[in-house]
Design goal:
mainly alpha, 7 helices
Length: 140
């Protein structure tokens, strides 16, 4: 299984969690999956490595955990440049479909945070457990 498939699985798990825990729909759309699957192998490997390192960094604490480190689109756009000249949220393809997360009160992300009643609906522990489970499934 390629890393882009693991990224899709992670996003699918986040969408399931948002639905189960917060009764929230719309976190992940078919266009999001198509976009991740269109990434070059090298790009998806870099995105997954960055995301994985951020989640499992021993210095990472729940109170300093940043959602931008667990979103493949944030990593792709802000940390890897997303193949665009400007590395900012306004050039994010997720933002094109869902609204720019940090700057649009009607964005999918902002709505999820409001529904969850917190700034970070996906805990560090949940992310660690989910990534471990996805990796274990990959081995089978």
């Amino acid at each position: 299984m390629e890393k882009k498939d693991l990224l899709v699985r992670f996003m699918e798990e986040k969408a399931k969690y948002a639905k189960k825990e917060y009764s929230f729909d719309g976190y992940l759309l078919p266009g999001d999956i198509i976009d991740i699957l269109s990434w070059k192998k090298e790009t998806s490997e870099k995105v997954f490595s960055f995301l994985y390192a951020a989640v499992f960094d021993k210095r990472q604490k729940e109170n300093t955990f940043c959602s931008g480190h667990i979103c493949p689109f944030c990593v792709f756009t802000l940390h890897l440049g997303g193949g665009r000249a400007v590395k900012d949220c306004f050039s994010c393809v997720y933002g094109e479909l869902h609204g720019i997360c940090c700057y649009n009160p009607s964005s999918t992300w902002d709505k999820l945070c409001n529904t969850a009643g917190k700034d970070e609906p996906f805990s560090l522990e949940w992310c660690r457990d989910t990534l471990k489970r996805i990796e274990k499934e990959e081995e089978c």
